Input
Amino acid sequence: MKTIKDLGELTGKRVLVRADFNVPLDGTTITDDGRIRAALPTINALREAGAKVILMAHLGRPKGKVVPELSLAPVAKRLGELIDANVALAKDTYGEDAQAKVAAMNSGDAVMLENVRFNPEETSKDAAERSAYAKKIAQLADAFVSDGFGVVHRAQGSNCAIAEFLPSAAGLLVEKEVNALSKATQNPERPLTVVLGGSKVSDKLGVIENLLDKADRLVIGGGMVFTFLKAQGCEVGTSLLEEDMIDTVRKYIETAKNNNVEIVLPTDIVVNAAFPAADAVIAPETVSADAIPADKMGLDIGPESQKLFHDKIVDSKTVVWNGPMGVFEVAQFADGTRAVAQGLVDASKNGAFSIVGGGDSASAVRNLGFDENGFSHISTGGGASLEFLEGKELPGLKVLD
Ligand code: AMP
Output
C-alpha cells in the first residue's frame, strides 16, 4: 500500500484528502467529533509538508440531492477550531466555487468541499458514472490521499474512482487501521480471543466463518447470543432470535469443536419484561442462561458471565472486540459491555494487543467513560473493520496498492 511518503515533495501541491467526517449531529451540533480528530494527523502532516489540503467527505445519506441539514458546514467549523485555522467550505465539489476556493489557497491551507453525496454519481452503481464524477473532482488537485477508513469497504467516487486520475496514497489513519487489523489477524500473538456482540448473527457471519480457523477463542454476547443458546437447546423467551440462523450456528459450533476453537457463551443473562422503552419501568433480574422465562427478554449478560468473559479476555495476547454485550445504551444493561471493555484494558496492561472494532463498540467505550488510551487501537470504521476481519478485499485499499 502506498503511503504519503510515496507522493514525494508536497510543497505547494494540491492534495485531495478523502476523510470520514460522518459525525453524529444534533441539529448543527456535533455530538461526537472523534472522526474529525482521527483525521488530524494526516491533515497536519500534509499542512506541515506545505501542501494545500482539499478535504472531501460525506455526511449522512442525502441520496444524491442537496440536503441543507447534511451540509458539512459544522464539520468545517469544528475542524477549523481543532487545527486553529480557517477552513473554508466550498458550496460544491467540483464547480465554480470549489475551483475558486482552491485557486485562492496558499501552502498549508485547508479547504473543505461540500458533501460528496449531494451528487448521485458518488454512490452510483455504474462504475463509469462514479469515474466521471471523480474525474471532475480530481481536476482540482495534484494528488489523492485516502484517509477515510470508515468508507474503504465501499467502491465510490471520492474514495476509489478518484485514484484512477491522481497519484494516490493511504493517509496516516488508514495506514494505522490497516497495520492494527493486520497485526491482529495475520500471525497474531496467541491466544487470540475474538469477542462478538451486537444485535444480529447474520451481520457477523462472515467474521465468524473467517475466524473459526484463526482465533483460539470466540466469546459471544449481545442480541446474537440467543441464537447460539437456542442452537444448544436452551429456550430464550422473547429475546432476539434469528430462527433461520440456528442451523448455521449449530454448524459453527461443530466446526469450532473440530478446530479446537473454544466458544465461550454466557452462563447467566439479565432479563426484563420487554425491550426498555424510555418511559417504562425497568425491573431487570438475572437468570441462568438455560432458564430464561418464556415471557422475558435477555438484554445483557449476567454478573457471572461478566467475570467469565473478563477473565477469558485477560488470558489473551491478542483481543479483537466488535459489538456490545447488551443494550448498553440503557444503564441497567451496560454492565456486560463495561466488563468486556475493562477486560481489554486489563489485557492491554498485561501487554496484550487489543482492538475495539468501530461503530457501536467504539461509541460504547467512549460513552461508558473509558480512556481511549487504555486500548491498543479503537477502529474508526465499523463496517470496514468487520469486512477486514472477514478477510475480504476492500476496494478503497486495493486502489492504493
Ligand atoms: P450492532 O448494530 O449489530 O452492532 O448492534 C448494536 C446494538 O445491539 C446496540 O444498539 C444494542 O443495544 C443492541 N443489543 C445488544 N444486545 C442486545 C440484546 N440482548 N437485545 C437486543 N438488542 C441488543
Observations:
- The pocket of adenosine monophosphate is lined by residues 198-200, 203, 222-223, 240, 298-299, 323-324, 326-327, 329, 359-360 (CB under 6 Å).
- The chain is about 35% helix and 15% strand.
